[in-house]
Amino acid sequence: MDYADQTLPVASINLGSKTVTLGQASHYGVKEQKKFYAFNILAELDEEGEYFIDRNTGMLFFYPTGPIETLDVFVSLLEKPMVSLRKASHITFSCLTFEYTRGTAVQMIDTHHTLIRNANFRGIGNVAVIFGEGWKDVVGGIGSSIFDRSFTDTMWNRRGGTHNKIVGCEITQCGMGGVILGGGDRGTVPLSSFHLFFFLSFFLSFFFFSPSSYLLPP
Predict the structure, then answer these.
(1) In a domain, 129, yes or no
(2) 41 pLDDT exceeds 60?
(3) What are the residues whose beta carbons fall under 8 Å from the beta carbon of 188, sequence distance 6 or more?
């Protein structure tokens, strides 16, 4: 069973030895007889919806799903969160649409009694909402490494806050999942009181499996 996969950068390709060197280590390991595929390859651009980005020239090659004149095409360069809160409280976001970003839509660090209600999240490159810090003490510094540190640094306080809620939201087409929670404090284990109630449709642009919400230790 293919439980999960991971997107890894390619550092180099040796045509002579037919070997590929990855740009970073895999969380799951690389084994023989396991499935893999490559993307962002110009020669493989042969189906509707596929694209190739030439990083050297900044050129985008896109195979549209229909006549380009009738399509809405969006390209985002934003990698930081669309909304970031730190040490805030009693704030409500209601009936808003967050869409088309390479990063995370909303990140809240050390927030209390916040509410996201009846909002739509779509076309998000990372996760829709994250409560707490990422790998570094930088807003938006998330990435897969957040999970590595959560299980190796057992006393890491991500400062996710308390009494935060997501209610009646629709989350769709997110690259790495829906919501990441990390409230409370591992040392004192207080009550965090998070409430989630949202609707999920197709998401996960880059991963075969990824949970709709991550319930990390405080």
Answers:
(1) yes
(2) yes
(3) none
